[in-house]
Every structure is written in C-alpha cells, then in structure tokens.
C-alpha cells in the first residue's frame, strides 16, 4: 500500500511552478503503462515462455530467430490492444490541452512503445523508443503499419513473417532495441523539448538508460524544476525538486488538479 497523501506545501509550490512555467515537458516510462496491466518484463516476472524478455529485444535475437521475436511482439500487441489508458494518461492529455490553451509549450516524451498516450487523446507524442504498432523493413527501411503474421505459433516460416509492401523484405518491429541508438530526428525533438524547459515531469521511469538518464540533470542544470512521479526513489531523485510517491493514476490527477 502507498501513502498517497501529498503535503499541502509541496502541492502549492508545485502548482505555482506549473502555472508560471512557459515550457513544460513530460518524460514517461513503463510505470504508467504497468498501471494499465501491461507487463514491464523487468526484474521479477520478467520472463516470457522461460525466455528473458529483455534478451529478445535485441537486433541479435531478431537476426538469430525472427520468428520467436515476432511471436513475442504479437503477444505484447495483444495485451496492449486490450489495455485501456488509466487516469494518469488522461491527466497528461488534460494537461496538454490546458497548456496549449494557455499558450505554453508542451511536449510529451515517452519511453513506452504501446501507444497508450495517443489512445488517451494526447497528440504529437514523441516516442523515444518507437512503436510496436509500426514496422520497418530490414532491406529498404520503409516504415509501415504492423500486420499480423499469417501463423501464430513458434517456428513461423520466414516467408509467413510480416513482409515489406514495397520490396518484400523482412519487416521488424519499429522499436529501439537494446544496443541500438535513437533516431536522429527523435533525439532532436527531445533536445528541443528539454532546452530552456521550465518544468520537467518524470513519470514511472527510473531513467537509468541513456539518453533519458541525462534529461533531469540537464533541466536542473539550466535552472528548470524537475518533478518525479514514482512509487519509490530512483537514481534521478536527487535531481528532483518535487517527489510524488505513489501510482501515477493517483498522483498525477492530484498534483495537476485534474
């Protein structure tokens, strides 16, 4: 159980900073999606069919066994398709509308590949790690939607795996796997969102993986405020002026007054 009570002094100070901010940026991670029932595949319970799920999210795993990796992502998409956004997602969508109405600059950066922010109504979401709902051709790099494999069991024949509509090359999930770099355009969007940021909300992520690990220190170093929403302290907590401990679905509506 979490003690989700927020001291009035902290809530008032946070509200004051939010109201005064001209540029607001959000960084969300797996924690907010976990509250919608989506597995994080980290730590305890991080196995899928006795495979370490994080070991499947690599270009090396896909090269060795594309059938297995596609089956894993089919399983993940089935879970996400049935998962509704939670109150935390909707609070961020409401914050975006409020900021835009007030003429503030607002950017939502997410490490999640599930699309739940867009499902909740958020627009122009910067998906740092890509999307499980898009694919990319391994041959011509064309990006398209994510069709289902013709077969859904293990050891799917290669030609029954999703293929490119342009060149018939093998498609892969359009996500950033371990060992891969973020796309240049995505990094530019993130940099622009963090530059001169007045308030950064870090939600449901420990932000230990680069480049996200540097976001909070960067904002703090340039005089911006950082607010962390998490169920526990994280490696970036020391950079945070505000700490809201508890589920995002509870703490975000409370802190944002939504």
TrEMBL record:
It catalyses: N(6)-glutaryl-L-lysyl-[protein] + NAD(+) + H2O = 2''-O-glutaryl-ADP-D-ribose + nicotinamide + L-lysyl-[protein]; N(6)-succinyl-L-lysyl-[protein] + NAD(+) + H2O = 2''-O-succinyl-ADP-D-ribose + nicotinamide + L-lysyl-[protein]; N(6)-malonyl-L-lysyl-[protein] + NAD(+) + H2O = 2''-O-malonyl-ADP-D-ribose + nicotinamide + L-lysyl-[protein]. Its EC number is 2.3.1.-. The keyword NAD applies. InterPro entries: DHS-like_NAD/FAD-binding_dom, NAD-dep_sirtuin_deacylases, Sirtuin, Sirtuin_cat_small_dom_sf, Sirtuin_class_III, Ssirtuin_cat_dom. NAD(+) binds at residues 29-48, 111-114, 204-206, 230-232, 248. Keywords: Metal-binding, Mitochondrion, NAD, Transferase, Zinc. Residues 4-258 form the Deacetylase sirtuin-type domain. PROSITE patterns: SIRTUIN. Signal peptide: none annotated. Zn(2+) binds at residues 137, 140, 164, 167. In contrast to class I sirtuins, class III sirtuins have only weak deacetylase activity. Difference in substrate specificity is probably due to a larger hydrophobic pocket with 2 residues (Tyr-73 and Arg-76) that bind to malonylated and succinylated substrates and define the specificity. HAMAP family: Sirtuin_ClassIII. Belongs to the sirtuin family. Class III subfamily. This is NAD-dependent protein deacylase.
